[in-house]
């Protein structure tokens, strides 16, 4: 026994002498109470460096108690963006894991949960640079937030320092935007605190349009294009990320750089689709603009009385979805329902068509839907500037929601439309109450497959983006919230992934499930290895870590310790 032991030791020694084994110790970022955590005097120094713009951050409920918010303000995305600790879906502010730390609207106690401790309320890039340098020097957990819209909770984290970009509010138009000396034509540069609504309004005043989503406060230069950025006009103009010409970014080393196809091109590649919050702090982004045009929003509701009928209706919709290919319509097809009846709300956007032509585009589907027994209700059209059609007045906020999604390939719609209806039937039968369909791919999104960026290639062959949603109210106990979330993931994921083509199918990283078991494949696909190598160049110490983001797999869920 002894000799065996010795010889094993000798072998180990021999190996370690010839090929030194790199021992990687788990390491943790500094938390309050740790010896390396900044003292009050250090925070005060940071505060002085940024002109007194350092804030103590509290949960939105506590902030609202102090401010005396109305119910309307609580539920307003525009108002919530003025509260540094607020997330739009306020479940992300809570820490449901035992011992739970909650701050609920009707609660009698309020704990900090996953809300940052401090925030830099930045208005110039130097404020962000100071925050980044401070976080590096003290090895702190950092988060970046603009609107707080994130559906995966990536813009908030326990015990973190928030780099808050909500007040980068400049909007500048030019007819000749230069990249590396070459004229890229008409463009708009927007700060990373500007919501879509304000960009649409400013563009309209210039008789211009840009490719953005349907929302008020989603930040075009924040998380939106780092995920992809879909729009009702994507079938015509491509994804929002396809139309970014440049970003200005504060890097993890504190440098403030211009990033485009000629300057840091590998970072430019990663920022367009490589995942929000993983690369640096975007100060502003420049988007191509287009001459304004006229568009029609066609809306109609279809009611079904049984789950079988709902399945048949969704199969019929899948068969008709190519009806709108020639005119490259964008469509939101939102189904709300149950194992019995459902309502399909269809909002279709047609560029350059009037109301009657838009109705003509819809009539084949609607008459076949009537034939299968669906009740068609409230058909109407509005013809206006596209800016007014997709720019919302405000975004409903202040509730609890999670999502799970997949990009559904065009081939499924062409070869197997009945599998779409079957998937809806299965989801409804298993208790899912809402499935949000987006016809925002195909057309130019597919034609842009030649653009070399980190957009998940699943976007280029997709026809639709389907999201199942789960809401709950605050009466659900913390342990049940955790169970509900696990249930939701385990019910929805197999159905949508099955429809989308299996375990390697893709999902939109901005509108997905933070509990996806294999986010590297699901959100980044074949781009993951290259993304990791680019992150190693620009963020070698993982200052910018978000759940499901690049290199998140070596950090715990809070992003505080390596695993
Ligand atoms: C009502 C609503 C409508 C939506 N509609 C659409 C749509 O039509 N099309 C679409 O594609 N998506 C849509 N989305 C999803 C949206 O793209 C994502 O929620 C996106 O992440 C929002 O980015 P944000 O910066 O506004 O949000 P935040 O919550 O502030 O941030 C989201 C992510 O981006 C990072 N981030 C924020 N600011 C910066 C910055 N300055 N620099 C670097 N990283 C930053 C954060 O760290 C986080 O990881 C919608 C969301 C909502 C709530
Ligand atoms: C930062 O300084 C300002 C101005 O002096 C002060 O009002 C604010 O409370 C300070 N912030 C913190 C977190 O102490
Ligand atoms: C809070 O309580 C009020 C009054 O009981 C109720 O109407 C409201 O729905 C509750 N809000 C939440 C978020 O539970
Ligand atoms: C953040 O800064 C902006 C711009 O100076 C200011 O209007 C706003 O009130 C500040 N927010 C907070 C919470 O202090
Ligand atoms: C920060 O990183 C960038 C990109 O690697 C590099 O160009 C720049 O020189 C670095 N700045 C400093 C101050 O080290
Ligand atoms: C289902 O039917 C009930 C009763 O008619 C109705 O109140 C409800 O709105 C319907 N639900 C949907 C999602 O259509
Ligand atoms: C649609 O056609 C009808 C009948 O031809 C006409 O009266 C109406 O003005 C048209 N509406 C639009 C929006 O073009
Ligand atoms: C729609 O109805 C027409 C006319 O009845 C029929 O020819 C066609 O096959 C139907 N289309 C689908 C997809 O069911
Ligand atoms: C989760 O699913 C299990 C098993 O189906 C069920 O018993 C439980 O009630 C569900 N919990 C919640 C909170 O939905």
TrEMBL record:
InterPro entries named among the record's database cross-references: BBE, FAD-bd_PCMH, FAD-bd_PCMH-like_sf, FAD-bd_PCMH_sub2, FAD-linked_Oxidoreductase, Oxid_FAD_bind_N
Gene3D superfamilies referenced in this protein's UniProt entry, alphabetically: 3.30.465.10
Keywords, sorted A to Z: FAD, Flavoprotein, Oxidoreductase, Signal
Top-level taxon of origin: Eukaryota
Cofactors: FAD
Signal peptide bounds: 1-20
Start and end residues of each FAD-binding PCMH-type domain: 112-292
Any one GO molecular-function label of the UniProt entry: oxidoreductase activity
One Pfam entry name: FAD_binding_4
Keyword Flavoprotein: yes
PANTHER family tied to this protein: BINDING OXIDOREDUCTASE, PUTATIVE (AFU_ORTHOLOGUE AFUA_1G17690)-RELATED, FAD-BINDING PCMH-TYPE DOMAIN-CONTAINING PROTEIN
Family: Belongs to the oxygen-dependent FAD-linked oxidoreductase family.
Stated name of the protein: FAD-binding domain-containing protein
Phylogenetic classification of the source organism: Eukaryota, Fungi, Dikarya, Basidiomycota, Agaricomycotina
